[in-house]
């Protein structure tokens, strides 16, 4: 959803009127050869028509005639810890914000900071993803595009979320486990392999890869910019078109 700010309308009005005023003053001078009269007419036209132009722009901005709305969607990044989900999702989120879209960001780490009691057993993970999916679907219903990044390791949970959403885009960040372990600055994989952490996805808890995601990205082979570009290109072509 795009709209024009008041400042943009004002700047457009000023630049257009400067061009028009110079042309008008020049024509008056050509026909009358009176510089003072030319400047007076130009100043009068500038002050009167710039206000009319601004009013004209504001009225048309409020009319729905000829406008087409960008339909919202839920863009769901899934993958192993360290795969690059959040980093790509952050860039996609900022790019959509810059386009003027109504967009919200949901991330596994930030959500667990708010709900620290959320566990990591299969039933707890399943409930967690379903709750977030329900929230995302409600945001979508209210015209907000959602960029979500969660490990969300179980196919059944992700399909449940897909069923809740009107337009669901599953992005599998399919970075190999070995590469994810190399990037593990917090040492979580090492702790999981030593048994200090249990129910860790990819080690002692399975990650069920999406069977038919809309996009599959391997950040071991793609740079951050390349991955982000692929997501945005897909969204532009298949999802965020005007209705």
From TrEMBL:
ATP binds at residues 79-86. Residues 72-218 form the APS kinase domain. Pathway: Sulfur metabolism; hydrogen sulfide biosynthesis; sulfite from sulfate: step 2/3. The chain crosses the membrane at residues 14-31. It catalyses: adenosine 5'-phosphosulfate + ATP = 3'-phosphoadenylyl sulfate + ADP + H(+). It comes from the Bacteria. It is an enzyme of class 2 (transferase). One of its GO terms (cellular component) is cytoplasm. Pfam families: APS_kinase, DUF2061. SUPFAM superfamilies: P-loop containing nucleoside triphosphate hydrolases. Its EC number is 2.7.1.25. The active site is at 152 (phosphoserine intermediate). Keywords: ATP-binding, Kinase, Membrane, Nucleotide-binding, Phosphoprotein, Plasmid, Transferase, Transmembrane, Transmembrane helix. One of its GO terms (molecular function) is sulfate adenylyltransferase (ATP) activity. Residues 10-61 form the DUF2061 domain. One of its GO terms (biological process) is hydrogen sulfide biosynthetic process. The keyword Magnesium does not apply. The keyword Phosphoprotein applies. NCBIfam families: apsK, PRK03846.1. Catalyzes the synthesis of activated sulfate. Belongs to the APS kinase family. This is Adenylyl-sulfate kinase. The gene is cysC.
């Amino acid at each position: 959803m795009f709209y024009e700010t008041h400042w943009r309308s004002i700047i457009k009005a000023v630049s257009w009127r400067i061009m028009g005023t110079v042309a008008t003053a020049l024509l008056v001078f050509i026909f009358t050869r009176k510089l003072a009269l030319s400047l007076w007419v130009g100043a009068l036209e500038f002050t009167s028509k710039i206000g009319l132009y601004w009013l004209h722009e504001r009225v048309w901005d409020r009319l729905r005639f000829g406008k087409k709305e960008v339909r919202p969607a839920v863009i769901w990044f899934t993958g192993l810890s360290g795969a690059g989900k959040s980093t790509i999702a952050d860039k996609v989120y900022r790019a959509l914000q810059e386009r003027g879209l109504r967009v919200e960001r949901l991330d596994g780490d930030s959500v667990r900071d708010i709900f620290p009691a959320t566990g990591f057993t299969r039933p707890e993970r399943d409930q967690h993803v379903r709750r977030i999916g329900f929230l995302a679907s409600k945001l979508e219903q209210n015209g907000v595009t959602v960029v979500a990044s969660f490990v969300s390791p179980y196919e059944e949970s992700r399909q449940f979320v897909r069923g809740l959403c009107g337009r669901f885009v599953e992005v599998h960040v399919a970075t190999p486990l070995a590469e994810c372990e190399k990037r593990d600055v917090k040492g979580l994989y090492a702790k999981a392999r030593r048994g200090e952490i249990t129910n860790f996805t990819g080690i002692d808890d399975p990650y069920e890869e999406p069977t038919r995601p809309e996009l599959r990205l391997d950040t071991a082979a793609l740079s951050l910019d390349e991955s982000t570009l692929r997501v945005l290109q897909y969204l532009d072509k298949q999802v965020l078109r005007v209705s």
